[in-house]
Amino acid sequence: MLENKVAIITGGTRGIGYETVRKFLQNKAKVVLFGSRKESVDKAVNSLKEENPNYEVFGLFPNLTKEQEVKEAFDTVKEKYGRIDILVNNAGVSSSTPLVNFTEEEYDKIANVNIKAVFTCSKVIVPYMEAQKGGVILNTSSMVSIYGQPSGCMYPASKFAVNGLTKSLSRELAPKNIRVNAVAPGITKTDMVAALPKEMIEPLIKTIPLGRIGTPEDIANAFLFLASDMASYITGEILQVDGAARA
After folding, report:
1. Is the pTM of this model over 0.70?
2. Burial class (CB in 10 A: 0-12, 13-18, 19+), 86
3. Pick the catalytic residue: 107, 147, 155, 233?
4. Please, what is the end-to-end C-alpha distance for the chain in angstroms?
5. Which residues fall within 8 angstroms of residue 67, CB to CB, at 6 or more apart?
């Protein structure tokens, strides 16, 4: 579905991001995964290469809130492959801190990673995509951007901002043939969720009409569809992948 496409996936070293990298590679894309540290990037790339030595994948670790670092990383990808077709803004941090306990440092961290990085990467990628007359930007949102959560208000607030960027950029960039969409995962079996005790998992499952927690592959499949030409007339959508969970 993505043969000969070049994709950059931020937060690609684990969880949903890593599975999205795998899914894109399985569908013949060339993928550059971004992570926060060289060690985690190298580990992810080596793991993928062990799975399939023919995968066309390598990794970089720019600070996603620094425009110049992002541009240098994008230049590296452009020099290697000649183009950048897909950007997946997946890097993010969560929080469950009660409002009264929020520190300025935690607020800034969430705002920087979840909002500023999406803004910066999207801003920097546009000239590359405009020059090649098209591209796809995909963002990772969350079901809590729509329904909120009982604690840690800055996380859903940041994802609500991602939704706003997605909707607005889809309208601004459509004349340049750049599609912008987001995927809003529900409860997903990442390492953090998998580590929860059974007595915490079972009540969560009861809130999901489909009767199970989502997998990273469920979310990666949504990204694959939206990145592909099968979604060529879809832009400005927040695709909920949550088993119909609504709270």
Report:
1. yes
2. buried
3. 155
4. 33
5. 120, 123, 124
